[in-house]
């Protein structure tokens, strides 16, 4: 048995904001992927994956939901035959490792599944998101369902609000100097503690005001600029967003990167923002001159995501 490939995802804009119903833009990231495989001799990582899939199977079996049902018999049989999830997607890095796994299990075992080939109405997209949210809650306690949705469809997705999501056309990449890149913090981040910090901060009126008046405003502008290919305006808005995040989301930025973050804003060589929930994993970078950013960040591992 060898299942189809499901890719990592990058939430370009909207981390935390989408919890509070502001806009977001997620894109597939094909450099990392995962697929279900079977082996008669499970050992090491594949053995651990098989054990974790058994736990996930129990979660799926206990879902008492009207929106989805699964072929649990086939799922269990495949587990007994040595099924595991073979993935190159780093865990705890904010690029959707659990999302790809959820997408592959849905694809393989859901009854009456919504396929990528059919006409994806808003209703179908919302239904998929709801199903994936139920499934992925096993990993994070609370899930928007967006990571698996992005992985399953392998399309850029524009989140206008919780009830309004649509596939988005993003401008094709150019061979320009500008780039979006990933900066490796070389630390693993955990989603749940970070989301808890955010939820506690949301109890503060000043923080809520900042989210709606500054964070969401800059995020929405960045998304609009990006989708329209307005690179000049984009970098102005990304710089503003980077400042807001540094000032208000310090616990989500690993300590060792506070100075690196400030340096980007001061020099304009690059601007950083959170990738996923933060706390470690990848940090997302935007630069008008990738070569310059590489020189400035020569002590760190960078990965190219998109060229302007």
TrEMBL record:
Annotated transmembrane regions: none
One term of GO molecular function: kinase activity
Domain of life: Bacteria
Keyword tags: Kinase, Transferase
Magnesium listed as a keyword: no
Keyword flag Electron transport: no
Species the sequence originates in: Polaribacter vadi
Protein name: Mevalonate kinase
